[in-house]
## 1
Amino acid sequence: FEAELKRVQQYAVDVTLDPDTAHPYLILSDNGKQVHVDQEENDLPDNPKRFSEFPIVLGKQSFSSGRFYFEVQVKSKTLWMLGVVRESVNRNEEFTVEWTPKKGYWCVFKGDENLCVALKDPPVRVSFQSYPEKLGVFVDYEEGLVSFHDVEDATRIYSFTGCSFTEKLYPFFCPGVNDDGKISPLIICPVMGDGDN
């Protein structure tokens, strides 16, 4: 798996968060690389791109061909959801486990200490050798592949295969609610690809 991780890391792209899509409870860092849930709703201008019902933000960068890869630090977080979504997803919908590829979501959802699922119909349980500190997300648009990697262990934890992409895809981030009042952000990390990260 280490060779596979090195191969997908070649397709690393620079992803930043798009404030126009951020739910009003989310706080984004100035450099667009970190997001966490605030205790209070922020007063933000109306925007048709904004998620209104669930704490989600998308990447600014969209992809409609080729391969791309990015890494996100999830260390010290118990709740999060990561992946990619198609441009036309409903941004005014409460979260359900039906946020599946059929609805334009290719995501892994971490719900509590022992539960992590790939959002398929029905959901597929994902198991870790140890809790990942950093998750890599790789997409091959033409191949119809979305895979999730534990960067430290160099293991693939789940793959959506045989996907049919017809629209722009956007990186998708949900930092979940605050864990016991602690505010741990999701952090988009630079991809080292040299085994030292």
## 2
Amino acid sequence: MKYCRIKYKMNRRTKTVVLACAIVLLLVIISVAGIVMNPELYAPDYSAKKLVPSLQHPFGTDYLGRDMFYRSVKGLSTSILIGTLAATVSALMALALGLLAATAGGWVDKAVSYFVDLFMGVPHLILLMLISFMLGGGLKGVVIGVALTHWPNLTRVIRGEVMQVRNAQYVKTSRKFGVSKVQVALRHIVPHVLPQFIIGLILLFPHAILHEAGLTFLGFGLPVDAPAMGIILSEALKHIATGMWWLVLFPGAMLVIVVMLFDKLGEQIKLLLDPASAQE
């Protein structure tokens, strides 16, 4: 009986690891496929305009004859890369500000808390539009806009974790031995909050991807000639009334699937890193 229980636990952990690795592999394949893809695959072909889905064109073609399968893969790759970059910058900001607020305390903690409340008091999409418009739109505006609007929640989580661990006995002992606050943070506090940071970083990806797509959909993001998901869906809405339903269905479904994959990846990583469930 004991052997069976141990075997079951190991199998469940192995399944979690395999599922997480499979999700990461799939997302990497989509990203790399978009990077190395030949632009001629989704270039206009006026002899193949408005074709319904078929074996030759699985997602059909649009009003310019562009293959929607390759264009959707390219758009997803662009959204994943932009979301990854923006989410990473935002998560690093959250880690730095959370550590600074909890370790320094005093007016520094009050200042960080004030900016957290300030950014959380304004709707994400409106703030994204304002920042992107001020920076002139484009790739730079989208990345900076998404990065500057997604750090507050993770900052609060990290600050709360640091507030708990800084009063631990081993941290107090280190300070009594003359260890500086910076060394205490790097040696004791950062390793403690690293699981929360990793999970928060992964869960930021779907938010960043959706906000990038929404910003581009509204015309404040990437240029109209770029194969981005927001532009693809925005163009599709202009032609869906003519019966070209595939222009919305397949790209939108792929975007939802990618977002769900990131959410599922975050759940699996949480199961592996959370002490309460890591040994189940």
